[in-house]
Design brief:
single chain; about 450 residues; alpha+beta; Immunoglobulin-like; Rossmann fold; 3 domains; four-stranded antiparallel beta sheet; 26 strands
Amino acid sequence: MKEVEKFGVFIYSGAMNWQIFQQDEDGFGEIELKGRWRLDEAECAVEMRLVNQDTGAVVSKDTDWKQAVTKTDGTWSGEIKRVPAGGLYRIETRLTHKKQPLKEWSIRGDIIHNIGVGDLWVIAGQSNAVGYGREAVNDSPELGVHLMRNSEKWILATHPLNDSTDTRHPVNCDIPNPGHSFCLSFAKILKRNLGYPIGFIQTALGGSPLTRWNPLEEGDLYKNMLHCIELAGGKIKGILWYQGCSDTDDKGSASYGSRFKNTLLRWRKDLKDDGISILTVQLNRVYGIKDKAVDRGWSKVREAQRQAALELKNIFITPAIDLPLSDTVHISSAGNMILGERMARVALGGVYKKPIQFKAPDIAKASGCNGGKTVRLIFDNVVGRLCNQDSDSPCFKVEDEKGAVDITQIEYKGSEVYLKLLRKLEGSAVVHGAYGANPPMVPVDIDRMIPMLAFYNVKIG
C-alpha cells in the first residue's frame, strides 16, 4: 500500500464516495476537485472524467476526459461542469506524461464512487426529526438516497440517521441511540417520483429547544447546521423541520410564534435564498401532561406552526396528531412510515409543483349562527368530506367571556362542521380544534385519511 501511495493522482477535497451534489435551477451540478500528484517524470498532467457507475460509459461530452490545472509544486485543481441530475456516477482521475503516449495506460489516480446530482434536504429539529421509532419495520436503504453522517462522511442512508459514531460535531449527539425516522421513507418516494438522487444532511438533536436553532438566541445548533451545509457544498433544496415539544411551557409557547418566524427568516438570509422550502410538522400528541398551562402550551405551539405556513412563502405544514407513538412522545416506526409519505406528498405538490392534493384540512372561518347557540366551522383543503371515526369525540372546544361553553352535538357536513352549544355565546368567543397535549380523535378528510390541522384561539365571527 505504501508503494502505491507514492505516485499518481490524489483527490483531497471536493468529492467523496456516496456524496450527493445539489443541482442548479437548470438541472445540473458542478464538482470542484483539488488534490496532489506525484511522479518522478517531467511534463505531467492530471486528467479527470465522470462516468456512469453501473456501465462505465461517459455521462456526456462535458464530462469526458479533461485536463486539470496541474502545477509543478505537485498540486492540481479542476472542475467537472454540467453534470446532469441523476447518477450514480464515478469520478476517475489519471496522470499522463510524455513517456507514455497511450493514455489508456496512464498512471493511476484516485476514484470516487457512487456519487449523484439531485437535491439535498437538511434534517433539523428535535427527537421526532432524529427519529425514535422503536419497533421493527421494513424500510430498507436504497441506492440514490444517501446521507452525510455526523462523521462528516457520506454513506448510503440507513437508520439510525443520527448515528453518533465517529462524530465530528458532538453538539448534536443524542444521549441514547436513536431509532427509526420518517426521512428515509420521504426520500425514497421523492427519488422514485423525480428520477434523481436525494441526499440528507442530518443536524437534528433530541430535546433541543428553539433557542438553540435561533441565531438571535443561543444558536449553537443553527451554527452547526450552517457548518454541515457548507461541507456539503453550500446549497440545499430545503429543510425538514420537526420541533416544538421543548417550547410548550407557558413562557416558551407565548413567544414561539414570533421567534419561530424570525428563525426561519434568518435561515433564509444566511443561506442567501429567500425562497428556500421548509417542510414543518405540526406537533404530534403526547401522553401524561397534567399541567394545564403546558397543556394549553401545546395548542399555542401548534397554532404558531399553522400560522407560519399561512403567512410565510414556501413554508409547508403536515399534521401528525393522529400518528401512533412508541412511548409517551415519540412517533412509532409505523407512524413514521405514514409521516414520510405525507411529507413526500407535501414536497411533491408544494415544492416540486406536481398536480396532486397535498394540503391538510385547515380551518378557514368560524361563525356563530342559530342565535348564537351554534358555531359553524368552514375548512379549506377538503377533497372528500370531513369525518370523525369517533362520532362522540369532543375534539373541539368553545370559550367566550363567561368561560368554557359545553358542546352538546357535533355535526359533520362535507367541508363544514356545526357545533351545537348548551347555551348562547356571550361577548367575544373563540374555538379550538384538537386542544391540548393529548386531544381526542380528530376528523379526517375521508378520501385521503389526512387529519385536520390543530388550531387554537380562532375567533368566532
